[in-house]
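Per reviewer request, we include the raw input and output of the structure prediction for the construct analysed in the revised manuscript.
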Amino acid sequence: MSTTTTTTTSHVTSTKLNANETALCGGFAGLTTRLAISPLDVIKIRLQVQSEPSSLKHIFKNSNKPNVKYSGINQAFKTIIKEEGVRGLFKGNVAAEWLYVTYGASQFYAYYYLDSFLKKVSQTNKYLRPTTTLTLNIAQQKELSPTIKPFISGMLAGSFATATTYPFDLLRTRFAMQGMNKVYNSIPHAVSDIYEREGIRGFYRGLSSSMTQIMPYMGLMFFSYESLRTILQRLQEARILSDNHKRTDDMICGSLAGIVSKTGVFPLDVVRKRLQVQGPHLTEYVVTSIPTYSTVWGCLKTIISREGLMGLYKGIVPGLLKAGPSGAVYFLMFEIAKDCMTYLNESGFQMIPEQSFISLP
């Protein structure tokens, strides 16, 4: 009995670009995205690290609460402007720009090879000798599920990028938590202080929670984006939707992918931020009431017992307000960079030759 399989093409990678060119597009996307979402990121981080009890009403409503530094998006925005000026909304931006550029480049570089590898794996099944019913079924399944491939590729690419760029993420968080009394005067000062007081491990505080968060987060992100682009493509082929609005399609799919993925893993993001600010300067940040945590599990239990379940969703409103535009800009700028790079290649000008450290079988 013959079986038919549908070969699916990735909407992220392109056969016209090599891995290095794809990585450059990812770095450009990261750079432009960070500039667009910096203020919301600072507000989100400061709301996340506060340890007062929370409820569903407090999450979605700005309410003045005694002994609380920031009680909502508007109040936090006004307080930061009043106390620190407009520059306060961009604290940690230098470290964050390095983070977003290197993260975007390493993520799409890894995704390129993972996507290629999974395509090769899905094609090798046809060479299996069907000695049992199980191997017969495997042999007939010549291609991995199109649903699984982007999730696995995104999950592993996100893990690789997180491990590679994590010190920048930690620096971004700590700078964003500084008030008028600065803990760190500059990035070199922060690096030397963390190294002297906390050692190399200090640069990786909260890494385990970050890896736990990033795997489903980036898996959902790329799965959602690829699925939404596939749906749009089918609607356009059926003449239900016009195919003359590519940039709008990029933004809509990117925005929805960002919202879906951020909502799914937000509690782990709260844990990650609280672990990142642990250390000798814990009481010197703009929010001074941050409890001491030593493990991911201990942090989770403490937040739930002291602040309620909704404590794990502190900052979700600015988080989602950030995730939507962030996803839209991220994938829009990535697709624009891809089109520009493809145009240059087709014009006979190759910016980056393919010189890979990874060889696929």
